[in-house]
Design a protein that fits this description.
146 residues; 69% helix; 4 helices
Length: 146
């Protein structure tokens, strides 16, 4: 009787997606997520005026979650490709208010979409969908909860 648990796990084959270009794209996206922690956190600390409490709370929830999502995606990606990502430095974005934050989140959403188009790993695509959901809920709070 064959015991499935006693067989060694098959190594997942490398795909063309693990090329340097794709690794660089994913590494840059992770860098953008980590940059978002700081950029949105700084904006969260200086938001004032009508609706500022709602914006403060929405931005706080975003920066609390995006770092963990970035870490999970990076680790999962490195596991599936069996290669470490190069995570470059990225330019710090300065956000002055909730409107700037919405524009910034729209841009980040577009970057996620672009990576998803070329990613062959459904689990990574799903993890990136969680980032898009976080972006969407944050935008909703920033736009409509005043």
């Amino acid at each position: 009787m064959n015991n499935v648990l006693s067989r060694p796990l098959a190594k997942q084959p490398a795909t063309k997606e693990t090329s340097m270009t794709k690794k660089t794209d994913m590494g840059m996206l992770i860098s953008h997520f980590l940059e978002a922690v700081t950029s949105v956190h700084k904006a969260h600390l200086k938001v004032t005026g009508p609706g500022s409490y709602a914006a403060h709370t929405a931005m706080g929830a975003f920066y609390d979650e995006i770092g963990d999502l970035a870490d999970n995606i990076a680790e999962s990606y490195q596991g599936v490709t069996e290669q470490l990502l190069a995570i470059p430095e990225s330019k710090q974005t300065v956000l002055s208010n909730a409107s700037d934050c919405v524009s910034y989140l729209n841009d980040l959403y577009g970057k996620v979409n672009e990576i998803q188009k070329t990613c062959p790993y459904s689990e990574i695509i799903n993890d990136l969908d969680n980032v898009k959901s976080l972006i969407n809920s944050t935008k909703y709070k920033l736009i409509f909860l005043k």
